[in-house]
Task: structure prediction
Amino acid sequence: MAKLFGAIDLGASSGRVMAGWVGNGQITLTQLHRFANNVIDRGDRLYWDFDALLREIQLGLTRLGEHAAELGLPVTSIGVDTWAVDYGLIDASAQLLDQPRNYRDPRNLLGVDQVNTLISPERQFELNGLQFQPFNTLYQLTAQSLQEPELLACTARILLIPDLIGHWLTGVAATEVTNASTTGLLDPHTHLWNGELLAQLDLRPEWFAPLAQPGQVLGSLLAERVSHPALHDTVVTMVASHDTASAVAGAPLTDAGSAYLSSGTWSLLGLELDAPVLTAAARNENFTNELGKDGKIRFLKNLSGLWLLQQSQATWASQGRDLPLADLLSQAALVTSSSRIDVTDPEFLAPGDMPGRIQTHCQRHGQPVPETPAAITRCILDSLADAYAAAVHGLQAVAHVKLTQLNVVGGGSENGLLCQLTANATGLPVFAGPVEATALGNIVAQAAAHGAAPTDLPSQREMIAQAFAVKRYAPQI
Result:
């Protein structure tokens, strides 16, 4: 029986509410509402405009109800996925204490220093299996405990962003495991909150909500969230709430040699494994072990992504040069040689004048300085492709797997120049699409929980592959 589902899908740059119709082995997606995800800059502090996000989500749910009425179907369920690591603090009366901080906030380096003083980086990796990123939740919380102990003193729960939205929708507090695995506070073997880490960092266990699995029903929509009759009996169902985990679930991975690249603001390149890889080689190569759907391990490397190009376009627009992406890519394709940047350099993390930073980086490293938007764009794309190639090489060496193809999903799958450069750099065929892998992973997880889709991950992927075509890019060497 066909059923209708809603996906609240938030990325670090924008969000949307999608409708997914699933039934008889088929799936269709409809975008109902898209909106910006803005940063609040309070001088030396960066926050998310969470109140604005909630207003946009509520508007999107109204449009979901209207869409359901047009189809003559109720909305069975809603699922939420977002970016990882960030969180909100709620008090005993379930009120948000402040707008959530943005992971690009420079305060996190204070937390890194403090955590490394308490626990060696080697021991951290043994306890959580995560690659080092200065914005991992354990560093953020440690920085907050040093700077804002008064907020933590009033805290009853710490909820990650998708769980904070789920709590707003239902009044129920729970933390979904795929996103919990990005915090640095989850045990990589038991997939439970790591008591040793919490104790050593003086984080109260009662702050952390019970863990939930994808497919688990969180609760019914609160009456004040029901903005249309079609939402009257709607429940919120846990999905793989880390957007990358949903994207990987929606990727058409065919065998053990299929690597994935979730390409958006960030680039997340890795493999699905059955067990974590906690070797010294994995730590030295800065790979991470995060959870995926059905208990799989997403063994991956987190690299910068289209953020570099997004910020460059924003800078050019502020200078009165509105350069459409299609024009930039066509011009960049004509650039015959380009400089390279280290896309993992922390200098590219914060928002701002990205073209200027790239030029300074090239000059500092003795490379030709790209002067035009086309040359800067080509520098970004070539540098990303090189970073992907290095990650592929590292994956094969550390995980002892021979890769046969790279599946690119997300917004980057529509960037034909980047896909071709990636195929050239890695020597692997690149299969691009589906672009909506995250929303598909979200919707299908709900559908499986409510009897409208297969319950096993391979069959879910097969259903997605039948409905959404991919494009193949062969290496040109």
About this structure: The mean pLDDT is 95. Residues 115 and 139 are 7 Å apart (CA to CA). The radius of gyration is 22 Å. The first strand starts at residue 3 and ends at 10.
